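Pasting two entries for a bug report.
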Amino acid sequence: MFLYIDPYGIQALDSELFDRFSMFAFASFEMLINFNSFGFFREACRVLKVDYTKDAALTDLDDLIEYSPIQVDSSQKSVELLNKIADGTYWQDIVNDFNAGQIDGYQAEERLSTCYKQQLQKRYTYVLDMPIQIKKTNHPKYRLIHVCNHEDGCLLMAQNMLKRTDELVLNIQREGQMSIFDFMSDVSTDSSGKQTTIYDVKKKMCSYLQNYKGEVHLNKLLAEFYGRYGLIGYINMVNDALKELEADGFIQICRQPQFSEKNGQPLRFMEEKGGRSVIIRRLQS
């Protein structure tokens, strides 16, 4: 079962429905959620009577045609509805910090998205955040969030999105109607616009490998790594970083089968399918 949740506005993002979905005994279950994070936060400011109009991040939403204000009978009902959508009250603290000038609109959106994902992680093993930018800027306008309980589902989604991004690099100025996958932010740059390098990925991977005692299957490692750091670099950047870490003597990449049946040469594949396995063994702490 694969569900694409693409509401007009934010009211349809009912966390109680996500609870019920997670309890169904599907052999495989995935959701791709279109989360209008900026739209949610602007609505949260309106409900708590906080002025957001001086912050460009919260006023430049003309491209978000799916945005639709909440229409309810009272402020209290609006708060209750936002609690239900967010699956918690954490958004109120974020609005209060924004109102106090401790964070700006972009920081508020990032914090809101992080908390929203943490709520989903209580139900689903793998939560993948894919920021989408509509124009060529460094900041996302909304987020696609993919959830599932199997590393293969998470990894397939990550690879497809990275492949899509690689294709868009060749045609970034395309005219015409845009699809939901037309451009992703924070894939090859960080929040400041700095390009992601192999060195950056290797540094993150060295740190993340400390979470495993000895060894881990490649698919599990990749799914959890993308869940932690998002989609970074080009499609094979993480695998390339692992190969460099092996050359550095930090890890050992163990493959089964090890040798080609045709010529007896060592195999160098970096994917687990068709009976092939790849295990990453940490050699250094």
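Entry 2 (this is the one that rendered wrong in the viewer):
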Amino acid sequence: MRIGALFLLLAAGCSSPPSTSRKDPLNVVFILADDLGFGELGCYGQKKIRTPYLDRLAAQGMRFTRHCSGAPVCAPSRCVLMSGRHLGHAPIRGNKRAEGYPEGQHPIPDETLTIAEVFRKAGYATGAFGKWGLGPAGSTGDPNRQGFDRFFGHNCQGVAHSFYPSHLWRNSEKVLLNAKPVPGHAKQPEGVVRLEDWTGERHSSVAILGEALAFLRESAARPFFLYLPFTEPHAALQPPVDLLDTYPREWDDRPYRGQCGYTPHPRPRAAYASMITALDRHVGEILKELDRLSLADRTLVLFSSDNGTTHHAPGDAQFGVAGVDAAFFESTAGLRAFKGSVYEGGIRVPLIVRWPGRVRPGSVSAFPSYFADHFPTLCEAAGLPVPGGLDGVSLLPVLEGRDAPARPPMVYVFPEYGGQFAVNYGSLKVVRQGVRTKQPGPWEVYDLDRDPGETKDLAAERPELVKKAVELLRAQADPNPVFPMPAPVLE
């Protein structure tokens, strides 16, 4: 952590009084799904997949309907969440592999200030359990060097493609999980696809959940910040076997053979639904443990997803990547596009917040928000100084039912999937696709209040908004040689 950031942290003041006393500090649990679509929870309109614990969490707290992730893919989205800086300022803007390491993604620089560092500096126990994706063990992005006392899970997103991997990481220690790991990517063009051929001995999520629950028990006597980036429902389709038969066999009229990436499965639709129900079950176990430890009343719980649902794949009319059938489940709830896109289907995600005594049960907010907002929000909620240099706005007034804060533009500078820009002004959104291709697409403008599916381009009617967005992007998009993007232009 850079010295300047520490000085700002210590010198800054809070914009509202601390929400908890020194005797009864606020705990924070942030649960992050992986590739969960906006419409894949019951409380967001899902009709086929069971999510009783998350539906109950929404009934006990606030459900956001206009929340967006930090990016349309994993690593940069998590970087925005951890750093509180949007994609024009965040150091990680894509899913680039780390050079010089056997596994892992390009690491967060040492000078990056993370939310975990702020909470640890304030005396909190800090733990991360799940998929990290922001730097290998021993790198500057190692979670132990970015504010977490304890880490257990997948350091590398690629290893996390299998739920039966050879190993996980406990801090800097590689922990053997399966002597006979199951690959995350394989094909079976012919023959009967048998579940037992693609099932290992120890499921990674079971091990990760166990370590997270142990952290809760061991940290119950002091304030804690618990980050739970679970891997579900990201492929491969390898849910706990016991959940499969809770979904109808008639859903699946043919097996998935790995033709669109990842591993085969005999019942892909049932498997995908089971992945999300398994995620819901993990959330339920965490909530039950908070109740058993008498911590629920002083714990702020947040649930969201790192980006939208898995996208289509060429060559198969039914299956998307990994055998996911997003159309069958109406995963995007009518939003345009999928993971990898700055259209709403790629970045609009669920956000559920429970805070007993502060957030009204069963409340709903349409305030536009995104991952950069969580850093200032959690600092202010816990009564900690909010560092300077963050790009988000505190959502505390929204959570408490007060007047909403002024919404700074939500900025996306995404170099992958052809290169994409987006600026969300709240109700109006400016987008450009293909900026790193030989034929960049035109600037587009959408009114998200009237047209959430982004079907009617208003660019011809609102040229001044395009000009405004280009000027903002020029000012807000820092050069980044690791993740280069051309300068935004009007043409």
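Dev reply: Rendering is fixed now. As a check, the viewer should reflect this: Residues 1-22 have pLDDT under 50 and may be disordered.
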